[in-house]
Amino acid sequence: MKGGEIMRDSLHVKIMTPDRIFFEGESESVTVKTGGGDRQILLNRRPFSSKINPGIVKLKIDGKEKKLATAGGFINTEYKSVTIVTHYATWETEQA
């Protein structure tokens, strides 16, 4: 995929913290922990909103899983987009 191109069959994902947009890009899937357990979001899934628990959020990008830790927050999904709002986020490799 060339810079700036949007992947076909992917979700537009935005992860926001109070001070910045932590991540904005395309992902094949997003997995979060909710009160009801793990929830995987795929393209064209029924929209929903939910509180998410502190823990790991998984993004599948170009067939590879990327993990980030969050302080919990909220998720809102539409058929082709996912927005996560959290107080804190860091990529798994950034953790000490």
Automatic annotation (TrEMBL):
InterPro entries found in the cross-reference section: ATP_synth_F1_dsu/esu (IPR001469), ATP_synth_F1_dsu/esu_N (IPR020546), ATPsynth_dsu/esu_N (IPR036771)
GO MF term list: proton-transporting ATP synthase activity, rotational mechanism
Keyword Ion transport: yes
Alphabetically ordered keywords of this record: ATP synthesis, CF(1), Ion transport, Membrane, Transport
GO cellular component, one term: endomembrane system
Subcellular location: Endomembrane system
Domain ATP synthase F1 complex delta/epsilon subunit N-terminal: 11-87
Topology with respect to the bilayer: Peripheral membrane protein
Pfam families cross-referenced by the UniProt entry: ATP-synt_DE_N
SUPFAM superfamilies found in the cross-reference section: Epsilon subunit of F1F0-ATP synthase N-terminal domain
Family membership: Belongs to the ATPase epsilon chain family.
Entry protein name: F0F1 ATP synthase subunit epsilon
Species this chain originates from: Peptacetobacter hominis
